[in-house]
Amino acid sequence: MAIILGIESTAHTFGVGIIKSKKILVNIKDTYTTEKGGIIPMEAAKHHAVLAEKMYKQALENAGILEKDIDGIAFSQGPGLAPCLLVGMKFAKHLSEKLNKPLIPVNHCIAHLEVGKTTGSKNPVMLYMSGANTQVIAYSQGKYRIFGETLDIGVGNFLDNFARALGIGFPGGPKIQTLAAEGKNYIEIPYIVKGMDISLSGILTNLKQKVDSKKYSHEDLAYSAQETVFAMLVEIAERALAYTGKKELLLAGGVAVNSRVQEMCNIMCKERGVKMFVPEKSLLTDNGAMIAYLGETLFKNKDYVIPSKLNSVDIIPTQRTDEVEINYVKECKKSLEKSCKNRNKARIKPYQNISKSFINKL
Ligand code: AMP
Ligand code: MG
Hints:
This protein is α/β, with parallel strands linked by helices and about 350 residues long. The protein has 2 domains: about 5-115 and about 285-325, Nucleotidyltransferase, domain 5 (2-Layer Sandwich), CATH 3.30.420; about 120-280 and about 335-360, Nucleotidyltransferase, domain 5. It has 11 helices and 12 strands. It has helices spanning about 40-65, 80-100, 110-115, 155-165, 170-180, 200-215, 220-245, 260-270, 280-285, 290-300, 330-360, and strands spanning about 5-10, 15-20, 25-30, 70-80, 105, 125-130, 135-140, 145-150, 195, 195-200, 250, 275. The strands form 3 sheets. It has a 5-stranded mixed β-sheet, with helices on both faces. A 5-stranded mixed β-sheet has the order 8-7-6-11-12, sandwiched between helices. About 45% of the residues are buried. The model is unreliable at about 340-360 (pLDDT under 50). The chain binds adenosine monophosphate and magnesium ion. Adenosine monophosphate binds near residues 13, 160 and 253.
């Protein structure tokens, strides 16, 4: 039975979570916000540095444990904003040295997916919709693969930026959701899906031009933006489900809190006979519990660094999900092999028939 502390600091949120045998003992967070404009990395990093020690002590108290009970310290290694990541890593290394306990570097995106398994999901396609990241991720042959993603900005940043143009502040997602509920007319805006990927920056420019023209109500624009962009997300998630043959869709990231995107995903899942999983809100947005949760799995797998080797660990701000070797997912591997076999059977049969009749004609 291991007790793992998790530290999240990739962007706006500093979070501390504690997990014991896959049970969340505590999950506290504090988010850097701005009155106007977007996130300033150095300011967010300062916010995290000021809070780290205090929140760590608070987490221990809330969990009812002592420092010496901790078996390992997990932290977000990437991807994320370098100044913010550095604060988290520095604090995690400090604890690792002080408590003489292993340090467990964790990929932030994979942590979102792994903690989603608390919902009962086992082998999902994850639609990950957060501020900076927007990706469709699923396990395939030893790695979590990115099946589709945004080619430019994340959907949360898109909503926050659009909200700034509407003059309604940060974070914009929840405010746009409220505005959209009052929208009545769908206004045509670009719909940009490129294969398995989406692009959002052109749509943002188009929306800003429409705001400036003062010809449309903000409610109708918010409604049209949500309907269009969420449909694009549902489309690439559905394509990944069709491609992998998986039977589960897991939602993750702050934008997944949105009831309309949940509703649209649900309709698609019902039509495809796929089960949808949505973790509770505190686990959807960035948090320390998910880092500790994946940290515990890695700890059990002896995938960590001992305190005397801390210098070998650094942050990886541009870390890609499929750069990370996964050697602890056994059940996924089996069911993937099964779904591949079924797919191959379905695919090979007609080709075999064609080739036989083709050969007969020769
Ligand atoms: P994350 O980076 O995963 O913590 O998510 C933060 C993003 O989620 C921000 O861009 C928010 O605007 C967005 N967000 C939070 N709540 C909602 C909501 N109800 N609808 C849409 N976006 C949301
Ligand atoms: Mg995130």
